[in-house]
Amino acid sequence: MSVEGFVRGKDENPASQLEGCETKPPVMHQEAERQSQEIPANKFYEYEKLHSRPFVSPESEIPEDLLHLYYSFGYDIRRRANLQLLDDRTLIVIAGNILILLDILTKEQRFLRSCSGGGIGAAAVCPSMEYFAVAEKGNNPHIIVYEYPSLRPYRILRGGTEREYSYVNFNHDGSLLVSISLDLSYTLTLWNWRQEELMQSCPAASQEVYRVSFSPYHPNRFTSSGAGHIRFWRMRSKVNGLKLQGIVGQSGKYGTTDVKGFIELPDGRVVSGTEWGNLLLWSRNTVQVEICRRNGRNCHSGTVLPFALEEGNLMTVGADGFVRVWDVKMIVSATSEDPNRRFKLEPSKEMMVENNTCLLSVVRSSSSNSSIWLAQDSNGVIWKLDLSFSNTASKPECLFSFHSELIKGLDVSKRSHLMVTTSLDCSVRVFDFLSKSELALIQFNQGGTALSWAPSSVSQSQDLLVTGFEDGVIRLLELFNHERLKTAELRLQQAFKPHSAPVTAVAFKGNGEILATGSSDCTVFFFLVGRKYCPMGFVRVPGPVQALEWSAHSHSENRLLVLCQSGHVIELQSPDPNAEVPTQTFLLSDLPWRSFRFKSIKSQIKREQELARRQAVKEEKEEEEEHPPLFIPDPPSPLCCGFYSRPGQFWLSMGGFDAGFLYHCEFSENQEEDPNQRQDKPFDFVPITDADDDPVCSITFSSNRKLLLCGMSSGSIRIYPLQPGDHDLSSMRAFWALSVHDNQYGRLQHVRFSYDDLFVLTAGDDGNIFSFCLVPAEEVQEHLQTTEVKLPSPRVGLEPLVSAADITDPAADSIETARQKLMKKNLHHETEQKHSRMQKQLEELQMKFQEILLENQKLPEHVRLTPEELRVDSIHQQLEKLKEQKTMEVRKQLAWEQECRSIALRKIQTWFADFVGGDVVTLYAIGSSRCVSTYRLPSLSEASPQVSAESGSDLPDGGTEATHNLHQSQAEAEEDCPRTAVSDSSEPAPGPSASLPSKKEKSLHKARLQLGARPKENRQKAAERAEVAQAKFAVRRQEWAQIYAEKPGKNYEDSELVQGILQARETIDGVKTSVMTLKEKEEELISLEVKIRTKKTEMNRKIVALRDSKVQLVSRFDAQIQQLQKIQQHLPPQLRLPLPTPPTLLPAETPERKLQCSRIAVEKYMKLREQRLMGAQQQGGAVSILELLEKEMEAEEQKGKQKDEGAETSTVSSSAVTGQSKRTKGQEVGDEMEKELQKEEEIRLCHEQSCLVEQLENSSVTQFDAELHQLYEQKLHLDIQLKLMEMQMLKLQQEVLVLKRFETREEKLQEKLSKCLQEENQVLLKLEECNQQLELKGAEMIDLKKRVRALTDAFQASLGENCPFEEFLTKVFTQKIKRVQMEKSPLHEETEDGEEDSDDDLDSDDYSSKKKREASLNVRPKGCKPELLKSTLQLRHDRVELEELQVKERKVVEALKKDITSLQEKEKLVKSQRRAVEADIELMNQEKQQEMNEVEVIIPLKLNQIQLACKGPVLSDLSEFLALDKMELFRMDEQIQQLQADNKKLNDQFHRDLKKRDRLLRDKKVKSIKVNDLENQCDELMMRRFGRKVDLEALLTMPDSTRLEELEQEKKRLLAAHADKMKHLETQVDEAQMDLMKETRRNTNLLHTTIDLMEQIKDVKAKISSSKKKKDKQPYQDHRRRQNQKRIQELQELVKKQRQQADALKQEICLLSSAGGPVLPPLQKTPNSPIPPAHAIRKNK
Q1: What is the pLDDT of residue 1733?
Q2: Rounded to whole angstroms, how far apart are CA atoms 257 and 290?
Q3: Rounded to 5°, angle at Cα 228 from 224 and 233
């Protein structure tokens, strides 16, 4: 019984952080209360309430249970850990939006749908096998924990992520659950799932996390791994909750690797897999050792995955298909003596599952002590493995097999419930979806991309399948029922290759005569259907083919609709089956066609909809708003699918921007325009609800066209009911929708109805195939009992036949390419035949011409024709011209081939010759066997010459920081400037206050008349004083501005100090540290390479120069020998001296001659090649031809040498014979003169001979050998240097490789850092802008307050003194009124009327009582002047305006404060992100530096060069020693001393700076106190002088004021009036001073009396102490003693009273003695009686 449904989750908001980890408690108060209570163990959620249904359009009659999920023929193979085991026979797998519970034995399936509707992210089974968790995807998804086997929802975990979960896992006791979310930070969340409590969450890593696993030995530990990282976690309980601490593993020199699996050992260490196939043993967070096999072999080929620890053995699986077992004891005790820290270990057991298997996950059977495991293969197979490794262990068994890649083709049979699919996994499968079984499978070497089931018009038995593949091959497959095996099989009937790119569509014509195929190579090929499919031709289309559709039978003409991915639609006329097949090419250039190119109208549709909406709601600002802009996507949107509607009309579904509509299009009548330049718009459209980002990818109809089935890009399926014959889709409104495949990568490309419309079949890019039935499952079972699948029976004699020949080579030629090559070959053959015929004719003509010449020679001379007469000039000239023309034509024809061959030759020379920098020249000595060779110089890389040009110096950071600090200090100075400077520098704002002086003049006109005019002299003096004061204040403001400009900012840093710190960081011990950047290392490497090349080039130049001198020496030697041979020709043999051995040039000394070939050699090579092609010789290939050519050339050279030697011998012999003949003649003649002359000639020749021989023997041969010996020694020294430089270069190359491994990671981190910095700068700019606006608003608020205060002052000034209407006018001025009421005030109506009229108007009965009270204030009382009331009302109007402005500004200020608060929070978040990225960069730099430090450096040393710094002999093993240069050691000692001195100097300077700082702080404190005292004194003086605090600058710079003049006049009048009173008061002051003197004298006497009393008290105390000593002696109390005690008490009270009187006198003295203080009356006498003198007291006593 299947369980289906959705569960829609509520949105949850992330919560605060807890000690570096995010805690996400529920936001809602109700849920907080629910979580605070424990959830009972027997609580379950009601499935019916959680169950959701497919979406059905409202108010439609579509049934909710329209489709029932019937079976799934696959699952998400590519998903990691997508195989879980509930019990011995039940598996859990995820397939799109479905969780499948698969029975291993019966292969029955039960289903659980995704509760969120967005898919399922991961699943996990509790160790108790009683529960399993399903983590979902979507908007704020949940984790649902189901109880097994009831499948009831037990717990729902909310708020763990906002997008999707990628992994979940239980701990070993099942009490906790951990989840990984697929967000930017890959949040790790820990759950107490039984109480639905989120315990803790924090970011797991910056890269994707693959797996999380709890430790089976330590409950508070768990490990996570993923892309390029592994992390070790610990859980710790704190007072405020749980805390998670994670440490990232440092792989060090092993480099980063994706860790897909790991296992924890009992001692806490972890063994993890790698991408290269070895195991890593982790101790804490570092790699202890790398485990590999012997001889450097890897543990596995490819990725390795440890999955179990059983009985002291570690089990691993790999991408190579092996399961291997390793001894854990050996791993635990692993130590490595290898410097690479590699531990060699061989597996104790291993098992090969099958070839080409790649295991992703392994789960164990739930039975106790069971050795059965189930494995998930990425090739679509679920294996059953017996890992007991015993002799009786069973072989791996394939339980299930599915497609493992994208499904590219699906079709159904037209007569039975059969389905065929093809995928990129190179397989074609046939399914019986009624009986839920797979019938047939066939594999190829390329992935399938298109598929079609041939109609009954092609094959009556429905046994033919047409499949297209990635390499452009079309294969015809025949399905038949094997009678002997009782199984269905697929057999290859024919294979042909019409395309050179993947086949994307195949379609049969309605009558089955023609097959059309389309490909992404922009071609459509036609084949004539028959026993053998024959090609008819092809057509080129404007874009890659997306789909093909033949017109229906109802159309008048048979046409093919070609849909291209680029948005082009082509309609092709069906080719004539009876037409002749073209012989030159298959291109059908004359085939009629029509074209359409889609132009986007979506923005226009949206615009019209928006305008209609505005028109409907009748917006007030419709005319002011702009119309929505039109947008045309570039590049155009891709075409998804389409179909015919009527002849010439069709529907299209577009992707990208144009998604969300179905467009009705038609071909235009104008087809002369270029298809690529066309812009055709649809004439109608149908909107698709909620599909703007979810285009329709596939469309199909039911057999009666009443249902339209749509496959969406989001993996959902939609069904639209249609009216019969609705080609315009006008009834396409209501629909039924259901999410089936994965919403992210499950693009639904194929949907089909079965032949009886009973089933719906879907196939998506997630590799899943689902079958749905339109009737309940019970009816399907009844139908299954009555219906049997009809498999085609085999033809007679079919079974013994073998399959047809297949095309297995992906690079095989297509049909058109093969024909073009055949045509070219035939043309070449015809050309050669024509050439041979012409050659034969020419030879015949030449023979005839020779015969004519012979006959002409036989004729008599007078009849014989001359050669000139035999030549026919006209014919010869014509033939020459014809020859030149043909030669030019041939050259033009061969120009491209000639250029191609020359370019190929240059490339070969560049690759083989230029790359190595020429051949090696070996120069041999003449007199010895010593030789010197040049260096082979490989060409430098292209980046070498550019490195020096690109390298440049950047500005130091110190200058930038100093500039920033300077700007910051200036900004702070502007902020700290006195407000008076700001107020004075700014102009007064215009407003109502600007008009106040004129109103004051009107209101105080009467007072001015009474006071009279002020003298002009006083006015001028006041103006001069104001100008002087303004000048002083201006100078003071400039001084303050300069002081604040020079004031350093809070974060100011001295640029020199910053530069020094940076330099100190870059240098260690006086040596600049190497900056670990790839660019600089490459520059250093290239510079070293250039240096090596320069030295080698210089040595090669010397060797070649010496070789050239040898060449000259040999040529000179040969010339002298030839001269000697000429001399010896005239000498008799007995006088001839032996010739010296001439120096020769060996081939190694002139290697460049190897590549120089003569025309004779080329001709010989061509002859040998022709002989080889004609079959004359049967050896080897081209190499044997070259060897034969070299042998023949050597033989000819030897023959030439033998001829030369023979010629020399014959010359010598002839000369001897000549000499003998001459002597014979001389003897016969006997002439003595001739003998003398002959003797003189012999002497001369002998002398010349001896000179030449001596010159040859003493030639420069010895000097040449000496130079070669010297050059040989130089080369030896250079070899030593070059070896050292090469070792340095090897080190640099290793460092470059290390840096390149970090380059991608560094670029990503730098990109993240730049983004964070950019975002932080944007936030800071916004924050600064808001602060500036807030400051401006604050200044405006202050200005408004000043203006309000000025209005109040103006109002007070207008009242004057002793105004009888002051109370009334004050109420009028302070009245709170609205602007509207104020505008309607009757003031403007009664300004010209009398008092009686205004009173009557205001007392109207139309006003309410409140209105009357308000209006009464507007009535002018009797005696009050109208101007005064009008002025007051105007001032009130101005005050109300200013108050409204204040309210508005206050609102703006509050909004700015809120923005600043939000920006500050965002700034904190961005800074935390930036710090995290900087921490990652720092960690990466540490890893990089660690690997750089591990690069080995080789330095050759002699034993006499080694000296130990410590005393003792030199050890044999120096591997643990640090090698340093002796001078470097001395320099380091000196540097240590220098650093110590510098350190001492800096410490002294630091102490001096501290003292200076303390002194400055004290001075600052004193100055601050002084400033505060002065400010208080100033405030006190202002209060005494003015009664309030005033602006002194404004007071001193105040211009002439009439009010001030009046006050001064009033002051003078008052001073004159109170002069007598002042004199009287001065007299009283003098009298009070005299009284004060008397009281002072009296107080002095009292003080003396007090002193006497104190002395008496002292004496009394001494007597009391002595009396206490005598107390022990006297047993009774004396009466005298009692009297003394009473006296002491009286004296103490007297002293107390005198002290109080003394204090009162002191206060009175201070008040009287203060300068300028008020004169106070004398203190009243205390009620106590005057103090009697001491003797009087004693007398009384």
Answers
A1: 45
A2: 13
A3: 25
